[in-house]
Amino acid sequence: MVWVLELLVLFVLFTLMVVPKVIRNPLSMVHAYPPDIYRRAVELGLVQESQKRSSRQFLVRRIIAVAVIGANFGLIVHVVNGADSFLTGAGYTLILWTVANWFDALVIDCLWFCHSKRVVIPGTEGMAGYRNYRFHMIAALKGMLLGIPSAIVAGLVVWLIR
User: Fold this and answer.
1) 15-53: per-residue pLDDT in tens?
2) Are residues 89 and 154 in contact, defined by beta-carbon separation less than 8 angstroms?
3) Quick one: which of 77, 81, 63 has its CA closest to 157?
4) Which of 29, 23, 64 is nearest to 48 (CA)?
5) Quick one: angle between helices 86-103 and 56-79, nearest 10?
6) What is the DSSP string of 86-138?
7) For residues 68 and 143, is the Cβ–Cβ distance under 8 A?
8) Orientation angle between helical segments 86-103 and 2-24, nearest 10 degrees
9) What is the pTM (predicted TM-score) of this model?
10) 3-state SS of the chain: helix, strand, coil percent to 5?
């Protein structure tokens, strides 16, 4: 039951972090958009240098986010799930990450993003990428791999505080 409640809270928090941000300003998450839309936004001069996928600043922010998320998950799985070793901390985190990642891909990306006019970046209207389910599935597979460094950080946090 703890897992179900934990995942529901995670789904709500993740949705509240992403959906309002994209509705207010679709360009705030342009790095996560399908390639054709991203390239068009760059061509139109709508993407700031720090938002470009290839920028050093973007990469540094992503690495910091992975570490902070991992540390937070480490504390959560230690306190809530009783993780008391590196492997249980990393394992529990990877499970939570993976389920949240697929929630993002299936619910937020495929059910909401692919069908909402509120996420359309001006100048990219009608582009095929807005209905690119394959892109979101591939991104989810990559997202699972991105969970590994966070899980390692979480495992280390659990190991240090046990």
Assistant:
1) 999 999 999 999 999 989 999 999 999 999 998 887 888
2) yes
3) 77
4) 29
5) 120
6) HHHHHHHHHHHHHHHHHHIIIIIIIIIGGG-GGGPPTT-TT-GGGG-HHHHHH
7) no
8) 50
9) 0.89
10) 80, 0, 20
